[in-house]
Specification:
- It is a single chain.
- By secondary structure, the protein is α/β, with parallel strands linked by helices.
- It is 39% helix and 21% strand.
């Protein structure tokens, strides 16, 4: 595909305000999952390059932290404006390297830009406290200060928005950042750095280290004593490793990890609304989101109506390259992702489930898979206990409210859940009973800049977005002032 703005297509690392090659001279190829063709050859950073980036962020921290919130906000708002001005060009890069339809990619750019606006405004409200003193000669004051150098390790499925969600909060708080984008999608992060530099962000405040050496670079980011905070979005398995490593220097951490979202349709649900929500939650980004509906629990009395209407809509999807207008389901990110989807489906079929729609690779290309609905699924099947990360909707029949809550909660994960009911009492009752960090009630898209994003149990800790997201980049300091007469 062609690109609207080649100035945004950077291939070097961005460290200390400079575009540089890796110390070793190493590089790697970024490919388009829709075609298999190479897009660009990108600098492959290692531990030494990561140390340089951390030192650059540390050198920039004191000055950046001394800026007022309003001054930092001006830079972030200029950065936001540049994102919006270049939304089409950024979306083209995003679609090329990870495959999602261009309309979804543009939506992601706008979503990422919204975090810059939100935190530019929110940083001005990082209020402290005056605590009533226990002594007439002293005063107790609480202030909030930026944590320091922060590391961000971001995923491939939302390469723009996930970096923006972390960087906007960190930079607004007065922190500096070293970001390691996923090796499948480094170009989006580098393009954002181009615009940050153009917006006037001082050298060293944001650093981007693309790499295929994720374990080595991750270890440096989590153990280097100059790094005070690590924010990671990715799998639970990798998150556990990073947590162990970060413990060696007792860093602050934010972890947004895997999910296994239940989507519950009760007998009193608006079925048309439930189908609309299911389509948005399950098949957006070809099912490759951490909050995707992963298990559909449908009450027996409405099961047939729900799957009939869902099937009709799924059959209308157009699968193909994301840069071709009209296609609304793109490829999976790589061969490993495709293989996982195929294995989970095969396991379900061996255990007695049936394919209602789809069920195989799509003719559009090597990494495309048909949007699929599987019926006859039981809660104990592997396809219902694993995060699918693909366009497959497994449907489970239920009869009892208490039983479906128990089945929905029977997972080590607790990121997102969805409930469809028109009964207000049930909405409150089930919403409170579900052991998940976020619950969509009669709503299939729950992410919002103004709402806290994050999970419980093995889906992570900390929150991103909203007023709570800023707190993770601030330290609370207590000042005791004595000698007051």
């Amino acid at each position: 595909m062609t690109f609207e703005n080649l100035d945004l297509l950077k291939t070097q690392a961005f460290i200390g305000g400079d575009w540089i090659d890796a110390t070793s001279g190493a590089s790697f190829v970024v490919s388009n999952p829709a075609t298999g063709g190479a897009i660009a050859t990108v600098t492959n950073c290692d531990i030494e390059d990561t140390k340089k980036a951390i030192k650059a962020a540390d050198a920039a921290f004191k000055s950046w932290a001394s800026w007022t919130a309003a001054q930092r906000a001006q830079i972030l708002m200029r950065w936001r404006a540049l994102l919006l001005e270049n939304a089409q060009a950024l979306a083209e890069i995003l679609t090329a390297e990870m495959g999602k339809p261009i309309a979804e990619a543009i939506g992601e750019i706008n979503y990422g830009a919204s975090y810059l606006e939100w935190y530019a405004e929110e940083a001005k409200r990082a209020y402290g406290d005056v605590i009533p003193s226990t002594s007439p000669s002293s005063r107790a004051i609480v202030i909030k200060q930026p944590v320091g150098v922060c590391a961000a390790i971001t995923p491939w499925n939302f390469p723009n928005a996930m970096l923006m969600r972390k960087a906007a909060a960190a930079l607004a708080a007065g922190c500096t950042m070293v970001a390691k984008p996923a090796e499948d999608t480094p170009l989006s992060a580098l393009a954002l750095a181009v615009l940050a530099e153009k917006a006037g962000l001082p050298a060293g405040v944001l650093n981007i280290v693309p790499t295929t050496k994720a374990a080595d670079v991750g270890l440096e980011l989590t153990t280097n004593p100059l790094v005070r905070k690590v924010s990671f979005t990715g799998s639970t398995g990798v998150g556990k490793v990073l947590l162990q490593q970060a413990a060696s220097t007792v860093k602050k951490v934010s972890m947004e990890l895997g999910g296994n979202a239940p989507f519950i349709v009760f007998d009193d649900a608006d079925i048309d609304a439930a189908v609309t929500g299911a389509l948005a939650s399950k098949y957006r980004n070809a099912g490759q989101t951490c909050v995707c509906a992963n298990r559909f629990f449908v009450h027996r009395s409405v099961h047939d109506e729900f799957i009939s209407k869902l099937s009709d809509k799924v059959a209308e999807f157009t699968v193909g390259r994301g840069d071709i207008e009209g296609n609304n389901v793109g490829p999976l990110i790589n061969e490993a992702a495709l293989k996982k989807v195929e294995l989970l489906l095969a396991s379900a079929l061996r255990d007695g489930a049936s394919v209602l729609v789809g069920g195989k690779k799509h003719i559009a290309g090597a990494l495309f898979f048909e949007p699929t609905i599987v019926t006859g699924v039981r809660a104990e099947m592997e396809i219902a206990s694993s995060e699918i990360f693909g366009p497959i909707a497994p449907v489970i029949v239920f009869d009892d409210e208490d039983d479906v809550i128990a089945d929905a909660n029977n997972t080590p994960y607790g990121l997102a859940a969805y409930v469809y009911t028109q009964n207000l009492s049930r909405a409150w009752r089930v919403g409170e009973a579900l052991d998940f960090g976020m619950v969509g009630i009669n709503e299939g898209i729950i992410s919002s800049v103004s709402a806290p994003f994050g999970g419980v149990k093995q889906s992570g800790m900390g929150r991103e977005g909203s007023k709570y997201g800023l707190e993770d980049y601030l330290e609370v300091k207590y000042l005791c002032m004595g000698g007051v007469r």
